[in-house]
Structure formats: C-alpha cells, structure tokens
Design brief:
Blueprint (H helix, E strand, L loop, with lengths): L2 H5 L8 H22 L5 H18 L3 H24 L13 H23 L1 H5 L16 H21 L5 H18 L3 H30 L1
Helix pairs in contact: 2-3, 2-9, 3-4, 4-7, 5-7, 7-8, 8-9
Length: 223
C-alpha cells in the first residue's frame, strides 16, 4: 500500500461536503484534546462538536452501529461537562488528582460492562445498519474481522478514559494513550490514512497531557 492508496484513494468517492465535515470533526477533536491538556472546560464543547459531526457522517453512510457509539461518546461528554462545571472555581479550569482504589475498581467494572455492551451492538450491527430491518440479514459476530474486535476493545478503553477524565483523574491519559496507539494500525487497515495520522497526533498529545497533569499535581503539593 503506497501513500496515494493510504491518504488519497479512499476519499475519491467522497463529496466536498463529506471531506469538509471529516476535516472539521478532526480539527475539533484535536482542539478538544488540547483543551483537556490545559485542564480547560472547553474540552467538552469542542469534543461534543466533533462527535456530533461524526454521528452525522456515520448516519449518512448507514453505519448506524458506529453512529450509536458516537452518540454514547456525546452523552459522556455532556456528563463530563456538568462535573467539570460543578468542580471549577473559575468555571474554566479544574484541579486534577490520582484515582482512588474504589475508582479503579469501578473503572474495571465499567470496562467489562462496556465490552459487553459494544459486543451486543456489533451483534445487532447487521440489523442496525440495514435500517433496523431483518430482510436479507442475519445476526451474529461472524462479520467481525480483527480490526472490528480491536474496535470493541478500544471503544471500551475510551469510555473508561472519558469517565476518568470527567472525574478529573490523571490516569485517564493512560487509557487515551493505549487506545490511540492501538487505533493507528487499525485505521491504516481500514484504509483511513488521514484518521491514522490523527490518532498519532492524539497519542503524542495524550502523553503530553499525562506529563502536564502529573506535573501540576506535584507543583500543588509543593505549594
């Protein structure tokens, strides 16, 4: 696979509007991660714009299963926005800390529950993607390849990361780093070269976010 096949060919059948929407969604996604690094509540409005754009794109492509997952991302972003607004003294920035043992246990349970729920969505994906019709479709996980199974895992990783971010816990970045890193080869396999570069940027930004949040907690202890 050459650079043309990776970055240009998949978009030859796209309309100008579809390309513009994907570029806009990517821009707001990166902007959201930037605000997150800065512990700025604007992480959520920008993130919601990005996920809603992808909800629209996926819906129009008939990928209703993936669309439903992005709807869940949007709901989690609203939940995080509310929590950050409550815990911010200046209504913009928040203080961060390490997760407690109880929160780690809950995160583990959330991961397992997410694995089950996302697998169920994929089980019904042929029915969902067929406009909620069983005509000519059969339920099951037979249609999943290794990239789809990785998608199940990464989606659960990201959901835990979103929950920990909503709780302003430093460990959220660990989940973003792992998930973003896994998504790079997965997107290349799917022929989404531009998206794979986006996840490379996300991985680098997540590492910076982890270091920045960790440093801020150390500086607060010194004070």
């Amino acid at each position: 696979m050459n650079l043309y096949d990776l970055f240009v060919k998949p978009y030859e059948s796209y309309t100008a509007l579809q390309i513009l929407l994907e570029a806009t969604g990517t821009f707001f996604g990166i902007l959201s991660v930037y605000f997150s690094i800065k512990k700025n509540i604007w992480v959520y409005p920008t993130g919601i714009i990005s996920t809603l754009i992808y909800v629209y794109i996926l819906f129009n492509f008939g990928l209703l299963g993936d669309c439903m997952i992005n709807v869940y991302y949007t709901a989690m972003s609203i939940y995080g926005w509310i929590l950050w607004a409550k815990n911010s003294e200046d209504h913009i920035h928040v203080e961060v800390s390490w997760a407690t043992r109880k929160e780690w246990i809950f995160a583990g349970l959330l991961f397992i529950i997410s694995l089950i729920l996302v697998t169920i969505i994929y089980y019904y994906k042929p029915y969902i993607d067929n406009q909620f019709s069983m005509a000519g479709t059969s339920l099951g996980l037979y249609h999943l390849d290794w990239a789809n199974w990785l998608d199940v895992v990464t989606t659960s990783i990201f959901l835990v990361g979103m929950w920990l971010m909503a709780k302003q816990r430093i460990e959220n970045w660990i989940f973003w780093i792992i998930g973003d890193f896994i998504c790079m080869p997965m997107m290349i396999f799917k022929g989404l070269g531009i998206t794979s570069v986006q996840y490379l940027v996300f991985t680098i930004m997540a590492i910076l976010g982890y270091l920045h949040w960790k440093k801020s907690v150390k500086e607060k202890k010194v004070q």
